[in-house]
Amino acid sequence: MCDEWMPHLELPITFEQFQQLPRNAAYKYEYFHERAWLSPRPHYYHALLDLEAWAARPLEGASRKARLRPVQPTDWAGLAPLFSAAFDRQQPFCGLDDERALAAARKALEHTRAGGDGPWIEQASFVATDGEAGPEVGAILVTLLPEGDPSGWHSYHWKEPPPPDALARRLGRPHLTWIFVRPFNAGQGVGTLLLSAAVRELLALGYKQLASTFLIGNDSSMLWHWRQGFQLLAYPGSWRRQVAEMEEAM
């Protein structure tokens, strides 16, 4: 789904200009026939949060102004412009015009709502507003993934449709599928406040861990995960990991 919104770029520039292009880890850079060719190459890091350890530490940096409420059915349409604005400067959405960015936001949110990212955990998903009656400034959406090695390729998709009572039976592992904050409110602790509410509800449901994923090259997301205490997991495609897996299989 990510590749759909990342354009292939062909730039008629000199090799010297090609060498000066800023690099983004989500793209592959090549030069031939007096042109620069930029091809989407999205790779992802996975991270894991110990919910009990996170809840036990003092809550620092959370917004004192924002207010939270559960995501309601009427919220989904209104979240699309907020989603689009939040990811306006991040891959895979930063190369889109306003109309296509909004379409991408709607499609991504509907994919989550419809269970494309695993069953939606409604109890752990929240909207943040600017004060009691202010506009929406952020949201967190949590889904349920199959339980397995969280650093493996196949732990982020259900091989078969999950049972309808998967959440009631405490199957799988919660996944932080989306968390986004309006740019004007970024850096004010809204994300921390949203995460704290999700952690509280997931613990009440009986879960101990929260997985997360972010695109390599999104430095702000990586920094946010680090500040929140997520443990960065091994990259599934690393050569060292593949060699270790082959040695274990022998």
Our count of domains comes out at 2
N- to C-terminal separation? Answer: 35 Å
Question: What's the main sheet like?
Answer: 7 strands, mixed
CATH class of the largest domain: Alpha Beta
CATH T-level topology of the largest domain: Aminopeptidase
Could you state the order of secondary-structure elements as H and E? EHEEEHEHHEEEHEHEH
Low-confidence stretches: none
Tell me the fraction of residues in β-strands, as a range.
15-25%
Protein architecture, described:
The chain is α+β, with helices and mostly antiparallel strands and 250 residues long. The chain has seven helices and ten strands. It folds into two domains: 38 residues, no CATH class; 199 residues, Gcn5-related N-acetyltransferase (GNAT) (Aminopeptidase, 3-Layer(aba) Sandwich). The strands form two sheets. It has a seven-stranded mixed β-sheet with strand order 5-6-7-8-9-4-10. A three-stranded antiparallel β-sheet has the order 1-3-2, with no helix packed on it. Helix 3 packs across helix 4.
